[in-house]
Design brief:
Layout lengths: L7 H10 L1 H9 L8 H17 L8 E3 L2 H17 L12 H8 L14 E8 L3 E8 L3
Parallel strand pairs: 1-2
Antiparallel strand pairs: 2-3
Helix pairs in contact: 1-2
């Protein structure tokens, strides 16, 4: 049994009827996937709206970008190597990753000091996007 994926061919008929479908198809790359740039742009606009309309958006969270998961994966690899050394308490996270914590990255980012949750997009093996919710209280 195969999955029923959204393809330009399947939606060609609907695209003529629906502006929303046509807009989505225009965003997909030639293989039918969203690029990291498109995902980051969408998340930027969500962060922008959260700033403009704080009563409509949950304020105890930070919405991150596609690069965050890559920085975490890199830091995890560095930590695994460093953890085998005698002075593992001297491990330092990269400045790039720490910029997320203080809210200077991504654009319109927010400091984590008042956050309970982090939301981040991740791309598995370069093709499948999924959302990650990180509970900072746990």
């Amino acid at each position: 049994m195969s999955a029923d994926f959204l393809t330009p061919e399947k939606l060609e008929e609907d695209a003529n009827k629906s502006t929303k479908v046509k807009c989505l198809l225009d965003l997909l790359n030639k293989d039918g996937w969203l690029t990291g740039e498109i995902v980051n742009e969408a998340l930027y606009h969500i962060r922008d709206r959260a700033l403009k309309f704080p009563n409509l958006f949950q304020q105890d969270c930070s919405i991150l970008d596609c690069y965050f998961c890559q920085f975490v994966q890199s830091a995890h690899g560095e930590w695994q190597i460093h953890a085998q050394l005698p002075r593992k308490e001297e491990f330092k996270f990269s400045k790039s990753l720490l910029k997320y914590v203080v809210g200077s990255t991504p654009e319109l980012g927010k400091s984590w000091k008042d956050c309970r949750y982090l939301y981040a997009p991740c791309c598995a093996i370069g093709c499948h996007w999924f959302a990650v919710k990180i509970d900072l209280d746990d």
